[in-house]
């Protein structure tokens, strides 16, 4: 048995050795491959090359390029010079004359250098290290650059600036330092640092950091300094946190001398091209109390909140297959916060601009005391759409009320339109369910159904359509809170039924004209007259609740005519609109048949005549005039004149003058029966570039309402050379007067700012 076991093991030994041998060969092969990947050969080209065998040295002259293909570190390295000595065996290089070193992580120029290619170290004389940030380039120049690794350097007696190099001239500004340390994709650390304006020292610090990187990395951003009468001296030191390539955050710790500790935070993410989100929170532990005569805005509102905050955010998400979600968040602690902290790195103005740029929708005005937050989900099909919404309303007016804001929990809609086979008809429907809930007060649920039949029609040169439908609304009224305070004396499940009818007819007439006497048409006149009839019977709606303005349907029996004219410039394959002129007016049969209330009462079935003129007399000049004229001898009840000149983004001049008989009614159509106070407003704005470095912006808005006149004035002067800038700002409103000065350096940010 023993002999057999020994023999058996002996028979297995050759196979075991074979597998071990194969394994060793594989390991050697892998090791060899790894070595081959890690050590790529260097290639050299030049106008003239001399090669020595012992030792293996290459001497190159004229347009020398030493290149290493992409290696294990994923970067290609290119060294260029006028003359180079390359020791192949030791991997060492001496070079001079128009010397540069380029890779994905570093860009260096120098007069001469000694480099160790294996260790990626060396010394460069009279060198400049540059980092391209897209809109500006950071340059670090020194007498000697010690390369300590891949894109890491130690620089003695250096100058750091973002100003472009101009031979023979001193940079407008630079930071001078005795020692600079640069890490790959990290920060440039200066010890110490002196800010130089030209060659004049103006500011000293023992320690300073610059973003010497081409990729995002966590670190402190430029601090914000401020000074104001109400806040005192302020300091905010933002810190950026790079979480993932598509996720980051910024925190804003700060201190206001007269108010207390401030902290803010902002979180951002991008999931795909149509999905992204931004959420931000500001918090201030305010130790300043409002007192009579010293309240913000002099509005007699005395704030009592100590813990003051503002939470806002927006998000869009594309779930695919035409399913899209949207979130809007806006919550504040008190009515003064948004107005009081409009400016600053995390203020209202900055957040509003950011949301408009990213989401194409901004925030509610800072003076709105009902802050709305909503969550929406919608789904599209070729001829249908379904959507849902949850909306909450926060009342920050601090005005005593026995009712609380109505919350939309939820709102659902389903709309669509389908064409009928073999019939020149289509079926359309609008349907909506909404639940208005409130903690105190009257709320209700409403189901709104509006199916209708639409019939298109063509009679020669005429075209049109007619529709008839059944508008059915069902309610369920809720009484919430104290039953003694909130009562509902009508039916809690009322209904409303309306049968509207509508018909439209129009035609288009066009003619081309030539003004040059030739055969080529220069412009076209397009005329489109139209006629519309609307009928909606009157129904009793006094016992219905009303929260959103859609619970009262006006009775209609009116005929409306419109006459639209378009002037189009013809130029080859292009058609450019030159202007438009339109008139429209309505005639109400209900008004014509109305019973007169008194002996002096008059029927006025004609609406005001609404006219509009849009004209582009020159390439950069536009004119828009709209007016409403009473046919019953009351003259103009509304007009708005807007004209402006715009040449690119640098030069803009505009004027707007508006008159309105009744400022409470914004639709300029039926004004004849309105005899309320009038409102006038004139706005002038200007933006111009006085020179390549100087720009001016200003606006004046004056509003006349009865005996209450006010003027808003703003002026902004900017001086911005290539790498630094100064901004002077002045604003004068009915509540406040401010003057601000801001000094900034490109790549650093706002260096100093004062506001009074």
Cα radius of gyration in angstroms = 37 Å
Mean pLDDT: 84
Shape: elongated
Largest sheet: 32 strands, antiparallel
Percent in helix: under 10%
CATH class of the largest domain equals: Mainly Beta
List segments where confidence is low: pLDDT < 50 over at least 5 consecutive residues.
1-39, 665-675, 752-756
Distance between the termini: 104 Å
Sheet/helix structural class: mainly beta
CATH architecture of the largest domain: Sandwich
List how many beta strands DSSP finds: 45
- The number of helices is 4
The CATH superfamily label of the largest domain reads Lipopolysaccharide (LPS) transport protein A like domain
**Strand portion:** over 45%
How many separate structural domains? 5
CATH topology assignment of the largest domain: lipopolysaccharide transport protein A fold
Salient structural properties:
single chain; 756 residues; mainly beta; 32-stranded antiparallel β-sheet; 45 strands; 8% helix
Walk me through the topology.
Layout: H1 2-38, E1 42-45, E2 48-52, E3 57-68, E4 77-87, E5 92-102, E6 107-116, E7 121-132, E8 137-149, E9 152-161, E10 173-182, E11 188-197, E12 200-205, E13 208-210, E14 219-220, E15 224-228, E16 232-236, E17 239-244, E18 247-256, E19 260-272, E20 275-285, E21 307-320, E22 323-332, H2 337-340, H3 348-359, E23 370-380, E24 384-395, E25 407-419, E26 426-437, E27 441-459, E28 462-469, E29 471-480, E30 495-498, E31 501-506, E32 509-513, E33 523-536, E34 556-571, E35 574-588, H4 589-592, E36 609-618, E37 621-629, E38 636-647, E39 651-660, E40 679-691, E41 694-705, E42 708-719, E43 724-732, E44 737-745, E45 749-755
Antiparallel strand pairs: 1-3, 2-3, 3-4, 4-5, 5-6, 6-7, 7-8, 8-9, 9-10, 10-11, 11-12, 11-13, 14-17, 15-16, 16-18, 17-18, 18-19, 19-20, 20-21, 21-22, 22-23, 23-24, 24-25, 25-26, 26-27, 27-28, 27-29, 28-31, 29-30, 31-33, 32-33, 33-34, 34-35, 35-36, 36-37, 37-38, 38-39, 39-40, 40-41, 41-42, ...
